[in-house]
Every structure is written in C-alpha cells, then in structure tokens.
Specification:
Shape of chain B: globular
CATH topology of chain A: MetI-like fold
Strand content of chain B: 25-35%
Low-confidence stretches of chain A: 280-286
Structural class of chain B: alpha/beta
Distance between the termini of chain A: 51 Å
Oligomer: heterodimer
CATH class of the largest domain in chain B: Alpha Beta
CATH superfamily of chain A: MetI-like
Strand content of chain A: under 5%
Helix content of chain A: over 70%
Mean pLDDT of chain B: 89
CATH superfamily of the largest domain in chain B: P-loop containing nucleotide triphosphate hydrolases
Mean pLDDT of chain A: 88
Shape of chain A: flat
Chain lengths: ~290, ~260
C-alpha cells in the first residue's frame, strides 16, 4: 500500500551532505589543535597587553616578553646550566632508583602472600608520611647536598609506583593463571607471560603519579636546602624581586613535567599495543 | 581391553572447605569414568554438578580429596591439554604466540614453537589471523585459537570445559560442526563438559549425565548416531529421542532435589 497523504507521516531522512571547501575540511580535521592554539595565543596576548597597559604590575607578575628576555639572559649564564643539570640529575637518579626498586619489590609483595603480610603494614604506614616532613631527618643523615634531594625524590617515586604495582599483581585474571598452570609454565615464565604483562598498565599509572610527585619533591627539597638547582634559582629571583626570572624557573619545572609525562605516555603505549584503548589513542594521535 | 583406555577414573571425590561457614561442601560425591582411546565423551549436568571440577582434577589444576585417575602415558609429552571456557587467550600475545604458548612452556624454542603452531592455526580456520591480537577476534574465532593452543601440544586427550557456552546460537552450531571435523582430523580423545543436552548428543559417542551437587553419575548413555554427523542430524527422530531421554533424567533430578532439605 502506498503512503497516501504526506501529512500523516513524519519523514526521517538522512542529513544532506553539503560539499565543503578544502579549507573547511582541513579545519574540521584539525579543529582540536586550531582551537587549542588559539586559546593559548589569546591568553598570552591578553597577559602581554594587560602588562603593557599597567593592569598587571611587573614587580609582582612579569609579562610573556619579560619571561622571554629573562630566558635569553639566563641561557648565557653557566650557572643556569649548572642549575638545570643539578635538578635534572636529582630527578633522573631519584626516579630510576625508585622504579628499579619499586617494581620488583611490588611484584614480590603482590605475588607472595607471606611477603605481603610482612610488608603491608610498612607500606601503608610509610606512605602516609608527608614526604617533606622527612627532609630535616634526611639532612641530618646526608647533609644538604644533592644526595638529600635525590633521596626525597626517590621516596616520592617509590611509593607512587609500588602501591599500584602490588594492586596490579593481586588483580591478575585467575583464568590466565590457570592457563599457565595448565601448560605447566615455569615460575619464571608465569611471571614473564602473565603477571608482568597484566601489571604493566598499573605500573604505568604509578609512573605517571610518580612523575608529578617527583617534581614537588625536587622543588621543596631545593627550596629547603638553598644550595643549587632551579628551585634555588627561583628563590634567588624572588629575593631580587625579579618576577621574570622566577616565572622562567617555574616554566622549566613545568616543561620537565610535561616532557617526562609525554615520554612516559609514549613508552606506555608502546608496551600496550594489545589493548584496544591504547590503539584508539594512537590512531587519534596520527 | 584395559590397554585401550585413554583415561580411567576411580572413586574420585572432591570436597571444599567453605570459609564463611567453616563446613565442608561436597562438589563431587564419587565418580568412576572410563574413556576409550579416540572416544568423544560429554559430561553433562546442571551448573554446580562438579563437571568442570572433574576436568580440572584430570588436568592437575585441582587436587581431588580421594580417588585415582590414570591417563595412558604418552611417550613424547603431555597426556592431556585443556580448552578453556572463556577462551582465556593472553590479550598481550598475538594469535600465533597464544597458540605456540603450550609448546614454549614445554621448552620448545620460540621459533620452533611458532613453526609448529602454524598448521594448527590453519586447521582451526584462523589462517591469515596469526598476527592479530585477541581483542581483534570475534568470540568464535577466539575459541578457535583456544582450541588450536590445546591441539598444538599434541596431547592425545583434549579436555574441553564448556568452550562454546558464551557463543551465540549460530556461531555455536558452526563451532560444533567444526569441532567434529577437527576431532576427526586430529584423532583425539575428547572429554567435553557442557550443560547443553543438544550439544552433548550431537558431538558425543557417550553422554555421561551428572546429578546436581553433590555430583555423581546418573547415567552413561551411548549415542549410536552414525558418523560423520551433519548438523541435520539434530532434526532426526533418533536425535530427538536421545535428547528427550536425557531431559527426563535431569528433570527427574530437579524435583526431589528441590524438595529435599538443605544439608
């Protein structure tokens, strides 16, 4: 039977596809980046203009141009590069030490019930300590040098990584463990084929957490000790009422955070190609 | 006669300690079962009847409280291999590496294991999917890989734990026919656990019907349908008669069990 009166039906039709110009199509594809960049540019422009107009007092908060000039000046000073190297050393040594110790120990605690009985109370107790409160104690042990700051960084990283690692091992799919047992996998293969791959996403979460805490540790420890590093550069700049140099120091820490997080993200995706979500991220990023 | 048995179980009993009430639950009351070489035997019963438990005891994943199981020795390696219920593929391994897993566990080198896994991937119909990860496969394809993994270790006895339970009806039928084809090609002894009457009758030489918990054997029914069996067999009168007979057994089980007080 044919439709008799058009008015008696609500008609649902596909949306007409309009042909778009190539510029429009380019924009649709890059909308995220274009809008993101526009937001950044607008922000810096407004900041610069309000500084030029005197809305923001240079004494308390510098302008983008001021920070840029401070950066150019600093980059010519050997002291600046020594500070950068100093802070980077604390971060990398502290982080590597925490990773190398926290991952194996986390695997052991998560896997062996008896090890976990012995360590669990300590983990929870030590993790509850606010790390900066330990600085004076660590100073007492090793002095104000680079060792102290590295230890503070290490402590922050260690607990951020070990707790999710333990959690990851404890939540390994029993069905997959059954498969390994069924095929008589050796203990070593059991770890390599089931426990560790299943725990990688948890370790990655811990690393991301650690990177954030690490930088807090560096800043607090350097501000406390006042010997060397970017934290000290920030403090000295503040003493001299040089807000440009101060903000430049903050920017350096921020860049360290952004870069290490990005690097960790890349390594993580490399190890998780088997996860559907990780692949979606990759495809989106292309 | 006894030398032709692939598997022989005598007086197998399984009890669990229930942690919450600190009582002992009997999962399997007692079980005697003989499976001949090359035979396809189904263990059929309601959930909780201990049929999967029995399979895990045979495979060594669980230890029985009492009883004895004999598997005929296989000179060149494992006697039995398990096909798991939820495919249980390693999500971080490709199809090829999943299928090769059992061989690698047995000490075969990676390269050699992959080479030996290849023909089995073809046998189960997964040729061309070797480098895919499990998440890229459909449920039926995952079960094919699961089956290939068990076949790869070349054990004479296959233990299959409800491998098609989570598949949709169409895929399940296809996989049943596929399983018979592969069983015929690979010449294995199969112990197949299922709660589906029709599946058990279609696949098996014998259907062993089990009672609900505590599990024991209610009946051992030889299925005399001719082989090879096409899916059309399921609409024959003999097939329907077998299914009805088993259904009666299980239904008769249900009523008194419900009336009996919980012990």
């Amino acid at each position: 039977m044919a439709v008799e009166s058009a008015a008696a039906y609500r008609v649902i039709q596909p949306r007409a596809r309009r042909s778009r110009s190539s510029l429009r199509r380019w924009y649709r594809r890059n909308e995220r980046n274009v809008l993101g960049l526009a937001g950044l540019v607008t922000f810096f422009a407004l900041w610069q203009v309000s500084s030029n107009l005197g809305v923001i007092d240079d004494l308390f908060f510098s302008s983008p141009a001021g920070v840029y000039l401070a950066a150019v000046r600093e980059a010519q000073l050997p002291r600046f590069w020594r500070d950068v190297q100093y802070s980077l050393t604390e971060v990398s040594v502290g982080f590597l030490a925490s990773f190398v110790l926290a991952v194996p120990l986390g695997l052991l605690i998560g896997w062996y019930r008896r090890v976990s009985f012995a360590f669990d109370p300590w983990l929870n107790f030590l993790n509850a300590i606010p790390r900066p409160a330990l600085i004076p104690l660590v100073v007492l042990w090793v002095g104000l040098g680079i060792e102290m700051k590295t230890i503070i960084v290490f402590l922050g990283g260690f607990f951020s990584i070990i707790l999710p690692t333990v959690e990851g091992v404890r939540t390994v799919d029993q069905g997959l463990l059954d498969v390994a047992h069924s095929f008589r996998a050796s203990q070593r293969r059991l770890f390599a084929s089931v426990v560790i791959p299943a725990t990688v996403p948890f370790i990655a979460t811990g690393v991301r957490l650690a990177l954030g805490r690490l930088l807090i540790g560096v800043v607090v420890a350097e501000l406390y000790a006042q010997t060397q590093g970017i934290g000290v550069m920030i403090a000295r700049a503040a003493d001299a009422l040089d807000s440009s140099r101060m903000l430049f120091g903050v920017l350096i820490f921020t860049l360290m955070g952004v870069l290490t997080t990005e690097l960790a993200g890349r390594i993580e995706r490399r190890f998780q190609r088997w996860r559907p979500s990780a692949n979606l991220d990759l495809e989106e990023g292309n | 006669m006894a030398s032709e048995l692939a598997l022989s179980a005598r007086g197998v009993r399984m009890e669990y300690r229930d942690r919450s009430s600190d009582t002992r639950l009997v999962a399997i009351e007692t079980m005697d079962l003989d499976v001949a070489d090359g035979e396809f035997v189904s263990l059929l019963g309601p959930s909780g009847c201990g049929k999967s438990t029995f399979l895990k005891i045979v495979n060594g994943l669980l230890t029985a409280t009492a009883g004895e199981i004999r598997l005929r020795r296989n000179g060149k390696g494992r006697e039995d291999a398990m096909v798991f219920q939820d495919a249980a593929l390693f999500p971080w391994y490709s199809v090829l590496d999943n299928v090769a897993y059992g061989l690698v566990c047995a000490g075969v080198s990676n390269a050699e294991a992959r080479k030996r896994a290849e023909p089995l991937i073809t046998l189960v119909g997964l040729g061309g999917f070797e480098t895919k990860y499990p998440y890229q496969l459909s449920g039926g394809m995952q079960q094919r890989a699961n089956l290939a993994r068990a076949l790869a270790v070349d054990a004479p006895i296959l233990l299959m734990d409800e491998p098609f339970a989570s598949l949709d009806a169409q895929t399940r039928e296809v996989m049943q026919a596929e399983l018979l084809r592969i069983w015929n090609a690979a010449k294995k002894t199969v112990v197949f656990v299922t709660h589906q009457i029709e599946e058990a009758v279609y696949l098996s030489d014998r259907v062993v019907v089990m009672s609900s918990r505590p599990g024991r054997i209610l009946a051992d029914i030889p299925i005399a349908l001719p082989r090879p069996r096409a899916l059309e067999v399921k609409r024959s009168a003999e097939f329907t008669a077998y299914a009805a007979q088993i259904w009666q057994l299980l239904a008769g089980q249900r009523a008194p069990a419900a009336a009996a007080p919980e012990s």
